[in-house]
């Protein structure tokens, strides 16, 4: 697939997203079907298609799902700001009304040219969910490898508002496939907590917080509750100065060089922990290849037991029962970079399918071949 710009490949992307929406959110499915009809001429669009193409003509979108989800989030953000007067408020904010009662007129009213907030979001925003449930991608490996008590420099790549940087101070709640609690790190010992993003958001800015709320799908109460708790925690940290996360504007391909510089600040028993969650699909193919090659180079020069790259990303079988996976990479004592898939999970993880053999093997390799207490019983 070439670069997505404007409405290039728009209908194919919409149709792929419709398959997901059908099972998860009837209101969003209804909206996206009406939007498609406004674009393909099945419904009178009043210039909507041309305005949409204009909003995106200078932007690129690597992921097939980004434009449809951006449009839905822009609608929800406008509805959150406007309140009950918004034509779609009862479906995409309240979420308690039968979506079959939604009509094309409701959607047409929601995309009028006069709705400047909606159009500004389409032209300038990115889909940034910042779901702290994805912090299982680093809290679990840290516990498995016995790093909770060592001084850590924690770096979140693609951090959005940085909420995952403080996730170890929130309740865990994850379980394995058998229903047993997953043992994860809590209140780790950090030297610094740093977040990098091309468009970092600020939890002190109400518009940014509203946008993050809008990226959570209507009706997903648990996700929204986790988000609000994380925002409150982050604001409290900023006010107190304790564990103050540092957010910077930086593209992913420049992160490995920054990590190399941070290695020089580590104490003798410190570890640099680089984490990412659902970043890969938002990078252009060339960007992604360059970034991942540079990350591997960073690990090779980091020294054994000094750096860990924790990743929570969609797996090669995104349509399966466990569409995402948690894997870690580090420099082994042999001098090679080793990677281990510790387990698999959902896109917004609450359950994790653990591979106990891989967890044990990973822990031994990170410790230089020395046996460790089993991380999974």
Supply database-style keywords:
377 residues, alpha/beta, 2 domains, nine-stranded mixed sheet, 13 helices, disordered C terminus
Give an overview in words.
There is one protein chain. The chain has helices spanning 10-24, 26-40, 48-56, 66-82, 89-94, 104-110, 116-124, 136-144, 206-214, 221-240, 255-263, 285-300, 356-366; strands at residues 152-157, 175-176, 190-197, 246-249, 271-277, 307-314, 324-331, 337-345, 351-354. With 377 residues, the protein is of the alpha/beta class. It folds into 2 domains: 10-124, no CATH class; 132-205 and 217-366, Rossmann fold (3-Layer(aba) Sandwich). It has a 9-stranded mixed sheet with strand order 2-9-8-7-6-5-1-3-4, sandwiched between helices. β8 (337-345) and β9 form a beta hairpin. α1 (10-24) packs antiparallel against α2 (26-40) and α11 (255-263) packs parallel to α12. Residues 369-377 have low confidence and may be disordered.
- Give the proportion of residues in helices: 40-55%
* Main pleated-sheet profile: 9 strands, mixed
Radius of gyration (CA) equals: 22 Å
Mass-distribution shape: elongated
The count of helical stretches stands at: 13
Percent of residues in β-strands: 5-15%
Number of domains: 2
